[in-house]
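Contributing new records

If you add data, match the layout below exactly. Sequence lines come first and carry their own label; structure lines follow with theirs. Keep one chain per record. Anything else will be rejected by the validation script.
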Amino acid sequence: MRDFWQAHQLQMAYEQAMRLEETAERLVLLTRVLPAYTGSNVAGVEVENTIKLCIPVDMGFTAEGWFRLYIPALLPKKGSGSADYIRSFLYPAMQEYFQGKEPVRFTDCVLAYRHVYSSDRPERRMRDHDNIETNMVSDIVALYVMPDDAPLVCSHYECSMMGEADRTEVYVIPKADFPVWLSQENQGFEEGEHCENGHEKLPEAAKKDM
């Protein structure tokens, strides 16, 4: 990859980088099971704690009552065997956040993805949205805040932009509020914004029993 970069063959450098990224993801999945092979009865818990430290997923509800998920990384490429990788850190984080809270069900909503690329790397090409692994994220989000992610329940929207650091933001927004969210997206969300963790800010319309 370095040789291609130094030769200004950026497309070849990009392809080599993607191969490395795919190999690294497969390696992570393999190494996560190695502690359990030692026979330690706390291996699973300690691996999960390590995942939380390395991938600090943030989530909550905005002042408008929209659900917002913050992943401090870009989602991997489709077809890279990455679904298990996403499940390994996102499902436990969602499960922990919603434990003991009221069930949430947005039934007429938009599931929106914002793929934010670090502006410190202007040479990196933004990926096509249909080449980004979002299905597993959608399935896990729907498990906790929607009946499902079928077309009758939600519409899908994706956008990409440059920002201070790589991250992926996922929003679940009532359809009636989507023009407001879209207006904010077009104006550019303020960098460094974080989720409101107040579950009580959820609108009554979304506090439906399962």
